[in-house]
Amino acid sequence: MKKYSLKVLITSLIVFTIMILTLEMLIPQAVLPILITIIVMAVFDMVKTTILTKNLKIQEEYKNQVFQSISHDLKSPISVINSHIEALDDGMINQEEFETVVRTQVHKLEYKVHSLLYLNKLNYMQDLNAYQSEKIDVKLIAKEAMTKFKYQRPDVNFKTSFSGNTVFRGNEEAWEAIIDNLLNNFMRYATSEIKITIKNNQIIFYNDGPPIDEKVLVDVFTPYKKGINGLFGLGLSIVKRTIKMLKYEIEVKNETKGVSFIIKEELE
After folding, report:
1. Rounded CA gap, 143 and 247, in Å?
2. Is the pTM of this model over 0.70?
3. Which of 77, 110, 113, 134 could pair with 105 as two cysteines, CB 3.0-4.6 Å apart?
């Protein structure tokens, strides 16, 4: 994008210089400043319009990519269920295996639909002050979330550590979205430990999974952005936007072993 804008600007400046040199030979000196001002304004309007058009095109292409990815996300669980219905009819799997698969895929589908609805709600959120003025004990939501997720990964040790203030801006819906989406992400990567720590007015979410490649670290909160190991989904985008709405910020940090997501007060 920057290269494209620079190219347009250089081309415009060359054209502008040629026009000025031509005008100096043909136009009276008294009229020349006025014409130069008009030409300068026209050139910058042209550059601005060109850049805006390019920006809109990039945004539209990205939006289409997101929609295609969402469509694929929603169709995948349905396709898996359909294939297992056929397998059950053909006697390739038993009823218990079928029910286990369907239960898992329905859970995935429910999570994706809920994420889409919540993200759409964020897009049309009007009264941010209502969210920012409320306060809630995040410790209670964190404990409830850990209890809910630990049954999905019995091989993982779920830990909590709370000290000092555990009350933060926001309501139950906002913090459930933040914590559930972070833990849902951790479930895919954690090796043996997931931990939530609240101390010094910060909330630290840790998992002992592999580090995030530095090349894609900046894009982890961008929905359906291509990463080293695939696409980043909607979950972390919801986390980022909800945290920003509550006037906090989030930092991702590769530890010696594992990864931490740190929520803290927004810098002025």
Report:
1. 23
2. no
3. 77
Residue 39 has pLDDT above 80, yes or no: no
Structure tokens at 47: 């550059």
C-beta separation of 93 from 87 below 8 A: yes
| CATH code where residue 192 lies | 3.30.565.10
Same structural domain, 241 and 212: yes
Residues 201 and 161 grouped into a single domain:
yes
- Domain identity same for 153 and 139: yes
Q: How many helices (H) and strands (E) does the chain have?
A: 7, 9
The answer on 140 and 237 residing in a single domain is yes
77-96: b (≥16 Cβ within 10 Å) or e: beebbeebeeebeeeeeeee
DSSP string, 139-207: HHHHHHHHHHHHTT-TTSEEEEEE-S--EEES-HHHHHHHHHHHHHHHHHH-SSEEEEEEETTEEEEEE
What total of structural domains would you count in the chain? 3
Residue at which a domain ends, from 90, 105, 123: 123
Paired tokens of 52: 């805006």
Domain of residue 13 covers 2-61
